[in-house]
Amino acid sequence: MDSATPNLTDRAVAPLSGDVLGVVTSLVNAVGWLYSHWYLPALALCVCWGGGEMLVRHLAARASAQRMALELRSSRHFDPGLEEIFRRGLQLARASTSVPWSAPRRAKTVQIRLRADGSRPLRYRIEGPAGGERLLSITPFGPDVTVHRARPITDKPREHVVRAEFILRGKTTTPLRDVPLSPDPLQPLVDAVADLRAELGDLAEIRLDIQRAPKWALRARRLQLMGAARRAERREAQRAARWLRQDAIGIEDSWSGQLQQLLWNRPGPGTSRRLVMPPVPRRVEPAEALGKLAENDHLVRVQLLVMCASNIAGRAQARLAQVQAALDVFGGRSRWAMRGWRLGPWRIGADHWPTRRGFERRWDLGHCQPPRANWVRLEEITGLLKPPTVHCRMPVFAGDLPTFTFGDPALLLQGLYHGPDGRPRLVATYAEETLFEVAVGKAGGGKTERALAQAIGWAHAGGGLVFVDPHRDSWPRAAPFLAHEDLMERIALFDLNALGPHPRLSSWNPLGMHHGQRAHEVVEAVADAYASVLAWDDASAPRALTILTAALTVLVTINEAACRASQPEDQATLFHVRALLTDAAFRRAALAAIAERLDAETRSWWQTVFPALPPDAFAVVLNPIARLTANPVTRAFLGQPIGAYNIRTAMDTRKIVWLCPGGNGPTDRLVTALLARDLLRAARSRRDTPEGRRVPFRPYFDELITLTGAAPETIAAMFEDFRKYRCHVHGMTQLLARLPTPVRLSLVQNASTLATTAGSMSAIAPVTAEWGDTPSPHRIATMERFEHYVSMNVHGHRIGPVQLSGPHLDDVFTDHARPHDVPALEHAARTHAGALPLDELTANATAQLDRVTTLLTNLTLTPTNPSTKKQYE
Fold first, then answer.
1. When comparing pLDDT for 342 and 717, which is higher?
2. Which end of the chain is less congested by CB atoms within 10 angstroms, N or C?
3. According to the model, what pLDDT value does residue 871 have?
């Protein structure tokens, strides 16, 4: 029995040992085979990985094909709060997941695109899944930000392109710098692309992809950070213990330590050294170790890609450096840094193998594959979650404010703009949108010079205008630049200053009917001019208005009859009002000659009411006419039956009219009021022309204070009504406060362009108030001469206020100056205005009463209704 037992055990163990040996042998053989044929499993692994990556890319590309794009435009008053921006960030993070379940994570992203190509300062676009469009279209920013569906952008190939990807450097758990909202965090980026030049192919684009943080990746990152923190704490504890032991040993081995033991402790033989307790590693707090990664809320992953391009070598690289410097504003303990390696002067990054293809794929498809360090909270990137705000200074590009081109009738010169790079550029507005313009500023500040440059440019482009200058200083200043043969045929100078020993004057008959005017419009214009200067109204001077209107009706009817009889040289003038009211013989002849042409009410007034009026009732009407008669210049100018001045014809034929009415005395104000009211009448008479056929015409009013002193209501009506008739007024004044209230309100309300030069703060304050005191009155008051702040309308949007240098004629139009041809221009301008010697005009005016009397006699002898005539004989 005893001898048999070992044999049985051996037989049982033998098969088991054989099986184990077989397994071990198989494993060894498998390892050997794998070692010998390692490339086969590696190839299989690569095939599986490659197939999986191709499938993921295919699914991601299919999801990216269904993306949408929105463009956000902020108004100049956009001033959001932190809560509004934070809510926008939550919308972006939520919208990033609005994709089908099959879409890979790299396609679950919302992209913010900041793009500049030299045509606009900075375009702010958002691209994301099509399913998130409704969520992203409604922003918490309110009406100050408009959202538009954007079209895809197709870029032309540039010769030089640089690319860069930015990652967060520093401690992963520390946040970026807390950048305040004022000034705008986007300001460094706007400044970095402010000097882009579209004609050179410059382009800069920044793309920020936002992706909700995956929970598994966040857990893994937290475990990694906690493990690293614990290891660091243990190493710190070990380091502290090592230093503590070294310090203890050093103390015991020192002579002071040995002396202390001899005097007090007296240790016996075999006593050990002092026991040193090592420090215990302190507990790692998750909030301290994880920092911004401690909480799941509002945590996102971001990818920041930048591309700069140009057709000029070196400009793209310089632009990338500027963008990199602009991103430094977000830097603190954590900062944005360019991804790659630097080898001496060379950098290996997104522009080089092996990362370039991956960069281009992510750029073209909008995929987000950020580095594992790019974790941020929404609070850290608030500056990038909104368009530019009111606190951002935006440069002006050609797309915002077009460049002035000499001879282009679509443009109107505004001034010289110095871009961020210091390059000057003549800027303009579109003529169709520049309806009314107001320029304010102190004397000599450059208002008139700027208006002259604008008017000269408009004249050379074929436009018609009238430049009203009471003091005539503008004419000799502008003459050298208008002395061109093609312009001489269109220029007329009406100068009432009567300069020189043998002055030559033009003429105008406000009551003349030889140009086909409507009788009631002429009567109304002259009567309103009188009432404006003399402050008449229906309450204060009803009788004077009635008498004047009745007299003008008769004289205008006489002139109609003269023109129908082909005798326009026998027309009555404004000075015949006196004869009509005070000369009974003349009055009877006039009423008898035109009796059948007067309506029944007018005839009844002359038969019944006029004879009952006392003689002193006419004084208030005749006194202004007596002053006009006493002045030889006004008598010669207004006393001619046929005048060359016809502003309606000038409007329709693109004439260039220079009108200098003289001073600002009572007589001059009456003449100015007559001219202003006639201009208003002529513009309103364009109702007879279809709107599409009305030729644009631009009146320029220098010294508005002087002009509005004569006709305040008339000037106000121009700023209110002229747009309908394609007459666009440009007014210049030193003080808005000196203008009558109706004029001031109409000017500011309807001004397409509002400009101011330097001046006192009280004078500038009404203008800056229209701009929200940005810039402040103090800043404008300290500007240099010929500097302007101007706000303009371009494509329906207000541009500015922008600081412009006033265009100086000698600089802007140097090549177009013809000083030697000024005498020829003077001769042509006066000839077209029908200028004659003053003595000759005075003699004609004196003899005109006799010619009108002869006309009335001839009209009376003409067979008419005898019963009607007999009433006045």
1. 717
2. N
3. 44
